[in-house]
Amino acid sequence: MKFTDPYQNPALYDAQYWWKKNDLELWKFLAHSYKVKNVLEIGSGTGRVGISLLMDGFIYSGVELSVIFNSYFIKKINSLGMKANVYNENFESFNLKKRFDFILSAFNTFNHCLSKKSFAKMLINISKHLDIKGRFVFELFVPDPLALYRSQSLKLDLMEYTCPSTYKSIQIKESISYNHINHIINVRWYYYQSNTLINKIKFNMKAWHPETVINMIDNSPFIIEKIIGDYDGGDFNSQSKKQIFICKNDF
Q1: How many domains would you assign to the chain?
Q2: Of 71, 115, 139, 148, which has the maximum CB count within 10 A?
């Protein structure tokens, strides 16, 4: 497979997000704080979070929509001599026939959910898998008006990584367009090697505003226990760049 799209190529995804480690301590801290044993991750991906939790001694399961990512993660688990259950399932309809102490969805996974209907279905299904005393934690970015309404022609530096096939440095620039009616962000990434454009991809994400998410949870089987605004565990406020919800079932 050519190294073209990180969402279709797990090795490229890992290479591109080599720097994404700043959230791992928070997830482990929360899991330890609630004295959990069984963890389920929604959007387990290539195992970025899962491997960290397994190494910390948790009993881990994951649900991943991508067949390619799921297979890649399983190979990682086997190569490390670890044991985990990782399922290739739809987030809205998976049925693992068991409940978990702690359910987690990290790094903007839910921003790839593009509709309220889909979001509501996920919340209902996830609630069926949460233990009576368990916690469900998920993360979204806080929409930034300055970013959303910038010029569509403006390409901003996003990240840099080493290509796993050529070992050459790749720079990524990003441009976006935003639909303020349905809150869909059309994202375009431009890949440069030595200032030469070598690839470009596009995908959509949803700008989930905090008041919308709170309303969605209020109309779900969950209640909000706390909202965190950063990876240090700070309270959510008007300056927060993250909205990290800690929820429990509303019995």
Answers
A1: 2
A2: 139
Q: Which pLDDT score is estimated for 1?
A: 39
Q: Are 105 and 137 in contact (CB under 8 A)?
A: yes
CB 84 within 8 A of CB 62: yes
Residue for token pair 């195992």: 47
Q: Are residues 112 and 225 in the same domain?
A: yes
CA distance 131 to 23: 24
- Cα torsion for 31, 222, 238, 240, to the nearest 10°? 30
Strand partners, 228: 235, 244
Contact 236, 227 (CB under 8 A): yes
Domain limits for position 129: 10-142+208-249
Cα–Cα distance measured from residue 91 to residue 85, given in angstroms and rounded to the nearest whole number: 15
**CATH code for the domain in which residue 125 is found:** 3.40.50.150
Helices (H) and strands (E) in the chain, counts: 7, 11
Domain end among 186, 206, 226 = 206
Residues 131 and 159 both lie in one domain? no
Quote the CA–CA distance of 142 and 184 in Å, as a whole number: 14
Model pLDDT, residue 36: 95
For the chain (length 251 residues), average pLDDT per consecutive 10?
Answer: 76 96 98 96 98 97 97 97 96 97 96 97 98 97 96 96 92 98 97 95 97 98 98 97 96 74
Q: Does 65 share its domain with 181?
A: no
pLDDT of residue 164: 86
* Dihedral angle, C-alpha 212, 40, 62, 42, nearest 10 °: 0
For residues 87 and 67, the answer to whether their CB atoms sit within 8 Å is no
What confidence score (pLDDT) does residue 251 get? 74
Determine, yes or no, domain membership for 5. Answer: no
